[in-house]
Amino acid sequence: MHLSNIKILNKITNKKTTFIKTGIFSAIAACWGVILVGTFLTFN
Amino acid sequence: MEVFLPIAQVFVSPIEILLLSALVGVLSGLFGVGGGFLMTPFLIFLGVPPAYAVANEANNILATSVSGSTTHWLKNTLDYKMGFMIVIGGSIGTALGIYTFTYFKDIGKIDTVISLAYMYILAIIGTLMLVESLGEIDKAKKNVVERKKLHVHYWIHGLPLRMRFPKSKLYESVFTPIIIGLAVGFIAAIMGIGGAFILVPAMIYIIKMPTRLVPGTSLFVTIFVSVIVTFLHSFNYGSIDLMLVVMLVVGSIFGVQVGQKLGEKIDSSGLKALLAILLLVVGIAIAYDTFFAEEIQKEISKVAIADLNFFSKFILEFSKDMPFFYGLFSILFAVSLGIAAAFLRRFLSNFRKKYFIKSAK
Q1: Which pLDDT value is given to residue B361?
Q2: Mutual angle of helices B50-75 and B242-265, in 10-degree steps
Q3: What is the maximum alpha-carbon separation in chain B?
Q4: Residue of A31, A43, A44 to mutate, interface with B, max B Cβ within 10 Å
Q5: CA-nearest residue of chain B to A21?
Q6: Closest chain B residue to the Cα of A41, Cα to Cα
Q7: Which residues of B touch A10 (CB under 8 A)?
Q8: What ipTM was reported for this prediction?
Q9: In chain B, whose CA is at the least distance from the CA of A20?
């Protein structure tokens, strides 16, 4: 396989990992958002 | 098919409870964490009032920790001296926890406090576990070997009154295990959990005990903490329902054995991320239930005593007439079930080795 093809494959894999990580961290942020907003609204 | 719980005064499906407790048992056997912080929210979702869910889950934890601890005792992987030091702190923490529980129960806010505590604890543990497991997966992919410091000293290591713990080969201040026990006991009393998720990391990273002694000692401490929690809940509020306890214990003891066997065969580090996601999902579900769901009055069923079966009638009268002995009975019941499960497991394991493995050779 050509070197340029390997580079493209690596780039795609890296982008996929970044995409998954962003998804997970946004899910965590959403979870904390629900909890904190809920607590704030309840105690207000 | 539904069964009426005479103390909690609700109808529940025994199949649902058995399946859920077995599932939580498998998870706790697989990952080495007690299932309390998953099972109590599940009980609440099934309609058991939070104050009853906490008390009965504590009794269930007693049975599973007796079972696990007996197995470790048979393998001689238990540090009794360290365990007793943590239990001293645990007893004080439990008493403080029950005092706090009583305060919130008196002002009528106990259900909200339990839900809030679960929500935050699950979200914190879920986030930490997810971040850690993602980091581990990342490191494994890149083949990074991290060099750790041999000794990290915190303020807790500078405390006075040091003593030797020969089994763990440690020279530590007595205050270190006592302070850790205090935190665990307090949380266990309010939330009806064993506290292994605090105890295990604290034993490894703060006390620095050898890893092989950690699970047994943690379970040993959990026995005492859950005995105190069960007894105080039973004596103060009469909230232990033996019907529910039987279902929980049977399901979770079976599940834990399956989980431990699975853990020996598969690498659970990759599954850690899944457990973390499950914790976050349960946390969000509790948040939704507490903050945004319509106020649905939980169905408190009034069933005439005459309509109850013999077992339910016996439990109800026993708990009302003799709360002290009822508490004692619940503890002995859970302890004996736990010991029986441990010996049964050993017997089956020996039997398998003797006949099946021999015949395979």
Answers
A1: 54
A2: 50
A3: 69
A4: A31
A5: B134
A6: B291
A7: none
A8: 0.73
A9: B134
Q: Residue B350 pLDDT > 70, yes or no?
A: yes
Residues 6+ apart with CB under 8 A from B105: B51, B237
Across the interface, whether the CB atoms of A38 and B134 are under 8 A apart is answered no
d(CA A44, CA B153): 42
Instruction: State pLDDT tens for residues B185-221.
Output: 888 888 777 777 778 777 877 777 787 777 778 888 8
Distances (CA, A) of B358 to B16, B17, B26, B265, B351: 39, 38, 28, 20, 10
Q: Are the C-beta atoms of residues B97 and B232 closer than 8 Å to each other?
A: no
User: Apex CA B250: angle with CA B221 and CA B353, to 5°?
Assistant: 85
CA gap B137, A24 in Å, rounded: 14
Q: How far apart are CA B298 and CA B47, in angstroms?
A: 7
pLDDT digits (tens, 9 = 90+) for B304-345: 666 677 777 888 888 888 888 888 888 888 888 888 887 887
All residues at 6 or more sequence positions from B259 whose CB lies less than 8 Å from its CB, including other chains: B25, B26, B27, B28, B29, B30, B31
Cβ(B256)–Cβ(B64) under 8 Å?
Answer: yes
The pTM score is: 0.74
**Shortest CA gap A35–chain B (Å):** 6
A-B C-beta contacts closer than 8 Å: 35
Lowest mean pLDDT among B34-48, B148-162, B290-304: B290-304
Which residues of A are less than 8 Å from B287 in CB distance? 34-35, 38
Instruction: Give the closest-approach CA distance of A10 to chain B in angstroms.
Output: 13
